[in-house]
Each structure stands twice: as C-alpha cells, then as structure tokens.
Protein: Olfactory receptor
Amino acid sequence: RNHSLISEFILLGFGNDPKLQPLLFLLFLLIYNVTVAGNTLIIALVVVDHNLRTPMYYLLGNLSFLEICYTSAFLPRLLASLWTGDRSVSVKGCFVQLYFFAVMSATEALLLAAMSYDRYVAICHPLRYAALMNGRVCGRLVAGSWLCSFLNCTLTDVFLWQLTFCDAKEMDHFFCDFTPLIKLSCSDTRTLELVTLTIAALGALVPCVLTLTSYVCIISTVLRIPSSTGRKKAFSTCSSHLIVLSVFYGAVITVYVVPTGNAPTVLHKILSVFYIVLTPLINPIIYCLRNKEVQESLQKALFKLAAFRNR
Ligand SMILES: *[C@@H]1O[C@H](CO)[C@@H](O)[C@H](O)[C@H]1NC(C)=O
Structure:
C-alpha cells in the first residue's frame, strides 16, 4: 500500500525558545524520575509486604506498572528531542506511539473500573468478598483489561493506516495524538473520523459507566450506615481511589470532550501535559499520602532498611 508520501513529521513541541528548552528538559526529567520511582515503590511494597496481598493492592500494583509503561511511551522521546533539538519523528514511529498511548489509556480506564468493582464488592457485599474477589478473579480482570484495549486499539489502527500524508509535516503538539494526526492527512477523513471516534467513544464509555455504577452503589450503601464513624471508615478505603479517578476523568474530559475548537493550541498542550504527565505521577503520591496501609507498609520497609544498614 502506498501508505505515505512523506516519511516524517516535525513535532513542534513547546516551540523553539532556546531559554525554555533546558528548563522544560529538567522539569520533565524530574517528573519522569519521580513517576518511575514512585510507581516502582508501590509495586515493591505490594510484592514484598504480606499485609498488602489483597486484590485491592494487586490492582494498585498493576496500575502502577501500567503507569510506568505509559509515561515511558512518550516521555523519554520528548526528553531526547528537548535535549538534541531534533524534533522529527517518522510516520511509522508516530503511529506506534499513538497506538501504545491509546492502548495504555484504555487499559488505565479499565483498570480503574476494575478497582471500583473491587471497592463495590468490599463495601456492598463484604461477606461475599472472599468468594467474588481473589487473586484469580483479579488476574482475569487485569488480563481482560489489557486484552480488550489491545483489540479495541488494533481495530482503530486498521482504519488509521488507510490515511495518506502528503505535504503538511508540522504537528503542533508534543506527541503523536489522534486529532493533530488526522488534521495533517490529505485523505478524506470524514468517515474515518466518525468510525474511529465511535470505537474510541465506546471504549471510553464502557469503563466510565461501570465505574460510575460501582460508585453509585457504594455511595448509597455508605449513606445507609447509621454511625458516622462507620461511614467514614467504609469510605476511607475508597477515598484514594476516588481522587485518582477524578484526576484521570477530569483530565480526559477537559482534553478530549470539552470543545476547544477555537482555543489556542497552547492551552490544549498545557491541558495535555496535565493529562498525560501528571496522572501517572499523582497516583503513587496520593496512595502514599492518604492510604493508611500503604503508609504503614512504607514505614515498616524504611525501618527494616535502617535496621539492615545499622547491622
Ligand atoms: C497484578 O495482578 C496479579 C493478579 O492478581 C498479581 O498476581 C500481581 O502480583 C499483580 N502485580 C503487581 C505488580 O502488583
């Protein structure tokens, strides 16, 4: 197939102000390191600490693993281009980046839905928790999330591969995203946009509805608990997850749903940074700051480390 007439795009990124590039490089380098370190810490705690061997933390560990992959799909590339000043990206590379970005966003939404299902069972059916949620179910939920996202995105990609690109090379964004890519194409993109948007919307809507349903059930159950301490206790187990959820969906909605047709692309870029750079960073921070069990586990690990050093 004569896929493309040009072989590379130029990602304009954050402009080419020479004073801004080193600053951005340092900022993103810091963010990348903290994201990888924080999420690795969560995975290590979940793997090492016996108290965290429950479905809720298995899912959290898997979410952290996903977020390391997610930031690694585009931050190293962005760092390299800020460092070298080389902003070109091959058309194939662009598609690959878009593909992984899409797979991981979809998996993240599904994993967050799986985590709310876990909280739903724990709060609304506590007596059947052991039967309904265990390592095996958890493994199936995780595998199912990855598989569905791969299938969904592969389907979308088959349509995207039909695009041809002729002269326009400059993409005013810092990574290969769907809308800027479509804008550059010289094919007739109307039907393609409709088809891919429908598939993507379905892929986003299903986990969103599942999550919402779980939380409606959770909240109505929590409100029926007579004592206020009981209510607080029940709710505290899902407050961290609720914050992570709000950050994720808040960002997705502002970037992709709110029409920014006439808004300057600068605004869109800044919102995208929030969405794709900050969500993976915020997750471990919130769990370390707000979740009692993670905090205890972290303290224990630090004590052990100190004891080991003093020996
Ligand atoms: C991911 O989930 C599986 C299945 O429950 C679990 O065995 C595994 O430990 C989890 N991975 C992490 C890093 O927590």
In short: The longest helix spans residues 91-124.
